[in-house]
């Protein structure tokens, strides 16, 4: 059974010592699924059997916009603890909003800069400031050697890595691959909002990415690769595409050849679904 910590005093006492092999933390909003557990496995590989794997569970109000799903976001704490136990997690830190934001409003936040205004940041203007602020707080509180984040949220991973570098956090930020359902849909706590028809439409997002990868393998240009994904998604009225964009691996302009990233975000009803994958461009010569 993982040790469950829900006060700052207990966390302080816990982090006053650390195993020699180090501590790896996985930050989540709960409603855990096998995607989160793969991050736990990555964390365990980093610190080994004698190191410590900590999972934080906190639905961070600061990263939700006014009209978003904060109130209906799934909260499944008992199931989360059971999954953590089965995965060999050592410690769970599960604070309340009052513990994290004792003054109510956070007066001081971390601004993500220009990259935080693009893509997810364009649709959710305060989102990444909320994410970076809570990540910074949780890094300070949990004092890990490693912090593991999913490639599923690629822009988030990039921004957290950048924050850690630019603000000199003494931690290694590690990315971990996206875990998918058998039909390709990236696992997400929000998938449980989908009805059967929506679930069907959602799986076309990963199909669109696969088709774009085929276009890339056939020598397509950056424009052709993105258009392949766009054209596929346009066939499904249940999907409302927000953006399909091909970028460099650090989210700048795409290269003319070599490794790039295809980001796709679409709504099914009011559920926002994100996916992305590496695409290797072969058109440049
Ligand atoms: P969340 O609870 O949605 O905030 O996610 C917590 C962490 O799990 C983040 O680093 C996510 O990128 C990661 N994550 C969520 N879904 C997946 C997935 N399908 N595969 C891998 N990592 C994931």
Any key phrases for this structure?
alpha/beta, Rossmann fold, binds adenosine monophosphate, 285 residues, three-stranded antiparallel beta sheet, globular, 2 domains, Pantoate--beta-alanine Ligase, Chain: A,domain 2
Description:
- The chain is built from nine helices and nine strands.
- A hairpin with a 2-residue loop joins strand 8 and strand 9.
- The chain has 285 residues and is of the alpha/beta class.
- It folds into two domains: 174 residues, Rossmann fold, CATH 3.40.50.620; 93 residues, 2-Layer Sandwich (Pantoate--beta-alanine Ligase, Chain: A,domain 2).
- The N and C termini lie far apart (56 Å).
- Strands 1-4-3-2-5-6 form a six-stranded parallel β-sheet, with helices on both faces.
- Helix 6 crosses helix 7 and helix 8 packs antiparallel against helix 9.
- The structure holds adenosine monophosphate.
- Adenosine monophosphate (AMP) binds next to helix 2 and strand 5.
- The site of adenosine monophosphate has 17 residues, from helix 2 and strand 5.
Name the hetero compounds present: adenosine monophosphate
* Amino-to-carboxy terminus distance: 56 Å
> Any idea what the radius of gyration is?
19 Å
What's the number of domains?
2
Task: Please outline what is shown here.
The protein is of the alpha/beta class.
